[in-house]
């Protein structure tokens, strides 16, 4: 049973007399009944008034028996011993007698709560809930559940500390024992009230693991004014940040409250806190869907198409890319805000990717649409393939974030197969290149190629050429099929990169060699799963 008992009477009297709302009074009395917080504000005020009128000899209750899960607590007291029992004016507030319940409740009626700044008052009403739901519905998201988050003004932590110190001083002054129970967090109490209303209005359950988040950001115009004394007492806690309009962030204020001495706090802030001049503002109501991940394999048939946009010094070099040809359709269908493209390795702009293609994945950020059937994914794949003759996509499917790790694992661990068209300065005969077919597990030392040195660190990488098979064309040309360790620079293995790759085809043939064309024939990563046509 969550109930108010005789020991709670002084707390109820003090807080109501200083302008605290009924729900915050219940929080400070450590009431954990979720159902009780959902009662109308006026009913709670009447219940508290009745409680104060009852005989002090009788333990009375003001709520129903409710089986609720354990609630989270917030610690407001850090030491057993506090400071002197003085508020900022050097006097202890007088505790109203049991017979002045009306006076106490009248002090709280119609005012903005001096602790929650109205969060547990106006922003728990049906009108505000409807406003939130209108915002959600107008955003046109697909969701089957939701998680609700709230951002509160930083000075709420200051006001809660002040209210707690006020209660502690008063109880000590009366010679009454003070339980060390921790008060119910404001955020938790707010969610107890708001969750059922949002669920009913949206028609879906609240779920802490849901990927669809509805968030409300509250702000208050007096934040800087009320927190300024903390910056004087604990200057190291408040450092300007580039993306923050004020140094008084929630974490900075909490850090300062942990450091400031109790006597210093009491000198600078009224305990209990005074009534605020203004109500909180609901600054933003936001919706956000967790990212959706799409994977597949792509073939690239053009020798004039980069994998990602090719932009140098702000100037676009080529009009499109593999990434853009795929993302254009996915972004439109999933109605996402943005995307992140990744793949199992990458090919140069002049290199084709053939065979069963290169595995890729795309993270779609904050998508409005998240549910697609297998048939719809097939149609989306076909739309991508019909839009360009430069690429083709296969095995397009929805995957999890964790599954993408399998693709990345293959970048360095798996093998890749290439086909290179090679030119030599001196004439060659068929028998001059057949010895290449017999070379197995050829070890290379590859210094970072000159062409990528501007974006890769200088290092010597050891790589393996597992097998080679030559195909004679004419006196100056032959084709070489290679199976290599992932991460091998094939172009440099052919021409040597001015001696930075050893050995190389030129040194093996004892003549100058260069590469005219290169194709990726297979990327041996068994991901994503192959789909039936």
Automatic annotation (TrEMBL):
<dbReference type="GO" id="GO:0031119">
    <property type="term" value="P:tRNA pseudouridine synthesis"/>
</dbReference>
<dbReference type="GO" id="GO:0046872">
    <property type="term" value="F:metal ion binding"/>
</dbReference>
<dbReference type="GO" id="GO:0160148">
    <property type="term" value="F:tRNA pseudouridine(55) synthase activity"/>
</dbReference>
<keyword id="KW-0539">Nucleus</keyword>
<dbReference type="InterPro" id="IPR048741">
    <property type="entry name" value="Pus10-like_C"/>
</dbReference>
<keyword id="KW-0175">Coiled coil</keyword>
<dbReference type="InterPro" id="IPR020103">
    <property type="entry name" value="PsdUridine_synth_cat_dom_sf"/>
</dbReference>
<dbReference type="InterPro" id="IPR039894">
    <property type="entry name" value="Pus10-like"/>
</dbReference>
<feature type="domain" description="Pus10-like C-terminal">
    <location>
        <begin position="293"/>
        <end position="524"/>
    </location>
</feature>
<keyword id="KW-0496">Mitochondrion</keyword>
<dbReference type="Pfam" id="PF21237">
    <property type="entry name" value="Pus10_N_euk"/>
</dbReference>
<dbReference type="GO" id="GO:0005634">
    <property type="term" value="C:nucleus"/>
</dbReference>
<feature type="domain" description="Pus10 N-terminal eukaryotes">
    <location>
        <begin position="113"/>
        <end position="287"/>
    </location>
</feature>
<keyword id="KW-0963">Cytoplasm</keyword>
<dbReference type="GO" id="GO:0003723">
    <property type="term" value="F:RNA binding"/>
</dbReference>
<protein>
    <recommendedName>
        <fullName>tRNA pseudouridine synthase Pus10</fullName>
        <ecNumber>5.4.99.25</ecNumber>
    </recommendedName>
</protein>
<dbReference type="Pfam" id="PF21238">
    <property type="entry name" value="Pus10_C"/>
</dbReference>
<keyword id="KW-0862">Zinc</keyword>
<dbReference type="InterPro" id="IPR048742">
    <property type="entry name" value="Pus10_N_euk"/>
</dbReference>
<keyword id="KW-0819">tRNA processing</keyword>
<keyword id="KW-0479">Metal-binding</keyword>
<comment type="similarity">
    <text>Belongs to the pseudouridine synthase Pus10 family.</text>
</comment>
<keyword id="KW-0413">Isomerase</keyword>
<dbReference type="GO" id="GO:0005739">
    <property type="term" value="C:mitochondrion"/>
</dbReference>
